[in-house]
Design brief:
The chain is 34% helix and 19% strand. The chain has helices spanning 4-7, 32-44, 66-73; strands at residues 20-26, 48-54. Strand 1, helix 2 (32-44) and strand 2 form a beta-alpha-beta unit. It starts with a helix and ends with a helix. The chain is an alpha+beta fold and 74 residues long.
Length: 74
């Protein structure tokens, strides 16, 4: 029986994918999760697949807050 720690690591058996999938979730998918997804994608490169999602449709079709745009640009 595999321990919890061994289930989380990659191995050569083909049992676990080498590419990790990460879903970043915030309330509106408006500021926090898209920025976090962009940072994780940049850090993870080809080893990760990042998606961003929100719990509500409050900000659909609206741009990000100007403070978030400035912070992301930095």
């Amino acid at each position: 029986m595999a321990s919890a720690g061994s289930a989380a690591r990659d191995d050569d058996s083909g049992r676990f994918p080498r590419r990790r999938r990460i879903l970043v979730v915030c309330v509106g998918n408006h500021n926090r999760s898209p920025i976090a997804a962009a940072v994780l994608a940049q850090l993870g490169g080809d080893k990760v697949e990042i998606r961003s999602a929100g719990l509500r449709e409050k900000h659909v079709g609206k741009g990000a807050h100007t403070n978030m745009i400035r912070a992301a640009a930095e």
